[in-house]
């Protein structure tokens, strides 16, 4: 039977980030909802939003005005995000969504 392998977790003082080696670029990360399957779209968006720290945000790209999503966001996280339309249709909508 193979010996168990110990894995170091953390490894130093907390820096508030992960250890994946990637770093966030300045500005908004794009989240293009057109390529996310409909069955998991809202859950994916909410997961991305919940992972943001204060002052960080996403640029949400959609092929329709995401009013149902915005209503859900208001119910779930009232006042936690600043939402601004960057592009408002008629074929493409882009919204800046930044955690307060």
Q: What's this, in brief?
A:
With 100 residues, the chain is of the alpha+beta class. It has helices spanning 41-50, 67-77; strands spanning 29-32, 57-62, 81-88, 93-99. It is 21% helix and 25% strand.
Structure description:
- The protein is of the alpha+beta class.
- The chain has a single domain, classed as Translation Initiation Factor IF3, CATH 3.30.110.40.
- The chain is 21% helix and 25% strand.
- Strand 1 (29-32), helix 1 and strand 2 (57-62) form a beta-alpha-beta unit.
- The longest helix has 11 residues, at 67-77.
- It starts with 28 loop residues before the first strand and ends with a strand.
What are the main properties of this structure?
globular; Translation Initiation Factor IF3; 4-stranded mixed β-sheet; 2 helices; 100 residues; alpha+beta
Helicity range: 10-25%
CATH level 1 class label: Alpha Beta
Strand content range = 25-35%
Low-confidence stretches: 5-15
C-alpha end-to-end distance: 51 Å
How would you sum up the global shape? Answer: globular
What is the assigned CATH homologous superfamily?
Answer: TusA-like domain
Number of domains: 1
Number of β-strand runs: 4
Organism: Arthrobacter alpinus
Biased composition (Gly residues): 9-19
Protein name: Hemerythrin
InterPro entries: DUF2249 (IPR018720)
Strand and helix map with partners:
Blueprint: E1 29-32, H1 41-50, E2 57-62, H2 67-77, E3 81-88, E4 93-99
Parallel strand pairs: 1-2
Antiparallel strand pairs: 2-4, 3-4
